Amino acid sequence: MDRRHPFSVKELTRQIKGTLEAVFPPVWVEGEISDLRIASSGHLYFSLKDDEARIRAVMFKREAGKLPFIPSDGMHALVLARLTVYEARGDYQLVVEDMEPRGIGALHRAMEQLRIRLDAEGVFSQEKKRDLPLFPVCVGIVTSASGAAVRDILKILRDRDAPVKVMISPALVQGNQAPQSLIDALNALIEQGESDVIIIGRGGGSLEDLLPFSDEKVVRAVADCPVPIISAVGHEIDISLSDLAADASTPTPSAGAEMVAAGREEILEQLRFLETRLLSGISHALRDGREQLLAVGSRLVHPRHLLEQGRMRLDDLSFRLGSHVRARL
Fold first, then answer.
1. Closest by CA position to 198, among listed 136, 134, 113, 270
2. 166: which of 80, 93, 134, 235 lies 20 to 30 Å off by Cα?
3. What separation in angstroms does the CA of 92 have from each of 18, 64, 82, 97?
């Protein structure tokens, strides 16, 4: 290197910055958030650390505003970030583009924050809930094409002899790509326009496995669905936010199928019950009418008796008139 033509600090920093950005594509980094500061501009400044190292990070307002939760010190997080250099200080840092909470406690906290925010917007309002169709002709299903959920739903519909058409719109139900996959599958059913009711869900899993059904975009898509929709996410204790946004929810996909498929035998049983009530009502009405008719009939006088009474009254008056005339004469 020629000492007579040294790099300026600015030039060297820019070369280091360019090299880092070229060598390192966006990467996922996991660590604990510390030293969090929220600037008046809305940008987030913090450090991401583990037991042996620490790196500065920034998340700009545009990306931070899309988060369904509020980051906090001590939260364990997974971030998608670009590695760069802040030239003014010569510090290398992460420019965070996305963030996910890690750990059960953090997930619960993030979901609760999102639930409160969406509830305040009216996304879960009971006034928006619609009744499910009593006898749907076509049932749409959004779930994994190879999972147990779709098999359970089809088995219930078959066992109950439900006279319905089934349309399956396959989707990913786990992982980072699952939310958009669920939304695309739901929109596909809506665009086809044949479904009278839609079941969206999956079988059981851990809280992390069920996260796509609490993704903000998925929850809003469920709430805005123009077709009555059932959230059938398999879980025992925790609920997904899609459960709150849907018109109805069930703890398992099988229960969701039972909700939309009355089944031929159940329909016939209802018809038999209604027939019995109808015949009983007609019988009571006829008996009451007969009793009223007999009561009225007992008070009626035959016309012949009225004529006889008239004749006798006429004869009596005739006799009295004759007697009166004779007496006057």
1. 136
2. 235
3. 11, 20, 10, 16
Task: Please indicate, yes or no, whether the overall pTM of this predicted structure exceeds 0.90.
Answer: no
**What residues form DSSP beta bridges with 94?**
57, 83
The pLDDT tens digits for 30-46 are 998 988 998 888 899 99
* Superfamily classification of domain 9-102: Nucleic acid-binding proteins (2.40.50.140)
How big is the CA angle at 233 (ends 171 and 189), to the nearest 5 degrees? 40
- How far CA 210 is from CA of 220, 223, 238, 243, 249, in Å, comes to 16, 18, 9, 12, 15
Q: Which CATH superfamily is domain 130-264 in?
A: Response regulator (3.40.50.2300)
Residue type for position 289: G
Nearest to 86 by CA among 24, 14, 12, 38: 14
Half-sphere exposure of 168 (CA within 13 A, CB side): 14
